[in-house]
Write a structure and sequence with these properties.
- The protein has helices at residues 6-18, 26-29, and strands spanning 44-49, 61-67, 74-79, 82-83, 89-90, 97-102, 110-118, 123-131, 143-148, 154-160, 165-172, 178-185, 190-195, 203-204, 210-211, 221-224, 229-234, 239-244, 250-253, 262-268, 273-278, 283-288, 293-299, 311-317, 322-327, 332-337, 342-348, 355-361, 366-371, 376-381, 387-392, 397-403, 408-413, 418-423, 428-432, 438-443, 449-453, 462-468.
- The protein is mostly beta strands.
- Strands 3, 4, 5, 7 and 8 form a five-stranded antiparallel sheet that branches. A four-stranded antiparallel sheet has the order 9-38-37-36, with no helix packed on it.
- The two termini are 35 Å apart.
């Protein structure tokens, strides 16, 4: 999903104006070329639906609200050179404007750039209007689906081939916070063991309130079959912990502050390394899985001036010795050589927005990426960084996992309540609905995947097992 930058749009508008483009509305053409500029006003415009929080889709009536204009100033709202209102708006005594526009029924999903012109004096700005995709449930008949509620507060899960078990990390907010690590029989999806993390120091919550009776809350999780352990990230306490797969007994709890805002953890079992993202920082921490000691911190730099990498999800290719790291603020994918623990490449994501989830296919050299504001899966070529495809499936994608057994990538849309399934070329194979707050997806044996659904409510949080039918 490629989009023009605001700078490019404004340059294009300027070219049209200077050329006397007849397609522009009369309000825009009436401006005196290079006349008085406005260095005082700070206008801004926002868009919303009549029902608060409802998605903007084709056919929606969109409310336009602007402020920061000069009283009685003329304001034109355009899509390219097409006026979206019946003539210019006039700012009231408080410098505000209001209007309603109805989107075409076939409005394409994506980020649309809306241009706002003012008169006396002249100014122009570009605001973004996001149109959500409307992708129906489809292709689900070829899969078997089972959802259960093993515990509440679920965040991530990870499958162990050695133990033949699924492990999940869960933290439910409150005072005190409740947290569990559970072991699940993947055949029945029933819990076979559970443990509460050890006590943690008291800390201050939102608003400065002291929160007592704390535990080292579990969020991210990864399995180490070489050593029969699982690694858990303790995001609240900026730490990590190691438990035994067999009985969930604690092997080691790292001190508070070991990894700032720890998020994801993956294990390179051959090299004996655990990689942990310090979310929204440029750092990936490296631990020795045998000695259980920190051995390195990998700092990822971006070529983007004035920006800093903010790490999120991880994807490991142990055979190729590659670790893929998603960066939210810079919308990039970094590739780390796990033999040297050096960054080998940083790729910008085509059309990326709030890039958070990443996976990959070693066979095709394609990287699968989701960004919270892209409403779909972006597939890019690892060698060139070029866009292969962008496939819409649901709103607010947050995680993606490629399954080599089936050649399919599964992606979660947390706000859209969907799990999209695409092939390596971006074709939408299936789209599962009813996964209310799909948060995370993990791979299992023979094409089976496990989706964490933070739906809450009477049913509680769920893990949905999806596997192809025979």
């Amino acid at each position: 999903m490629m989009r023009p930058t605001k700078k490019a749009l404004m340059n294009g508008i300027a070219v049209l104006a200077l050329a006397g483009a007849s397609a522009l509305p009369m309000a825009a053409q009436a401006q005196e070329t290079f006349g008085e500029t406005d260095i005082v006003s700070t206008p801004k415009v926002s868009f919303s639906t009549a029902e608060r929080g409802a998605p903007v889709v084709g056919g929606t009536v969109v409310k336009v609200a602007g402020e920061g204009f000069r009283p009685s100033q003329s304001v034109s709202i355009l899509y390219g050179d097409t006026a979206l209102t019946d003539g210019p708006l006039t700012a009231d005594a408080d410098g505000k404007v209001q209007a309603e526009i109805t989107l075409p029924a076939d409005a394409a999903p994506g980020i649309h750039q809306i241009v706002i012109f003012t008169e006396e004096p002249y100014s122009a700005l570009v605001e973004e209007l996001k149109v959500w995709p409307q992708v129906a449930e489809q292709g689900v008949d070829g899969f078997e689906v089972l959802a259960t509620n093993p515990t509440n507060g679920l965040y991530q899960s990870a499958y162990s081939e050695a133990s033949g078990a699924l492990f999940a990390a869960a933290t439910a907010f409150g005072d005190p916070i409740k947290s569990e690590i559970v072991k699940i029989d993947p055949a029945t999806m029933q819990v076979t063991a559970r443990v509460t993390p050890p006590a943690a120091p008291d800390r201050r919550g939102r608003g400065g309130t002291m929160m007592t009776d704390q535990v080292y809350a579990a969020f991210g999780i990864g399995v180490d079959d070489a050593n029969g352990t699982i690694w858990v990230t303790n995001t609240f306490q900026n730490s990590v912990a190691v438990y035994r797969q067999s009985d969930l007994s604690l092997v080691k709890q790292f001190d508070e502050g070991a990894v700032y805002h720890s998020r994801d953890v993956v294990i390179d079992q051959e090299l004996g390394k655990a990689y942990v993202t310090a979310s929204m920082t440029p750092d990936v921490y490296v631990f020795d899985t045998r000695t259980l000691e920190q051995v390195a911190v990998i700092t990822i730099d971006t070529p983007q001036r004035g920006k800093s990498v903010g790490t999120a999800s991880l994807s490991l290719d142990p055979e190729a010795h590659k670790l893929y790291v998603a960066s939210i603020p810079t919308e990039e994918i970094a590739i780390i050589d796990t033999q040297t623990d050096k960054v080998s490449k940083v790729l910008p994501v085509p059309g990326g927005r709030a890039t958070i989830g990443v996976s990959h296919d070693p066979a095709t050299g394609r990287i699968f990426v989701v960004g919270r504001d892209t409403d779909g899966v972006t597939i890019m070529d690892e060698e060139t960084g070029d866009l292969v495809a962008h496939t819409y499936f649901g709103s607010y994608p947050i995680n993606v996992m490629f399954d080599a057994d089936t050649g399919l990538a599964y992606a979660t849309a947390r706000n859209g309540g969907m799990v999209g399934v695409v092939d390596v070329d971006g074709n939408l194979v299936a789209n599962f609905g009813g996964v209310k707050y799909a948060n995370h997806v993990a791979g299992g044996p023979d094409g089976t995947v496990y989706v964490v659904d933070k739906r809450g409510g009477d049913d509680g949080d769920m893990i949905t097992r999806i596997r192809p039918k025979d």
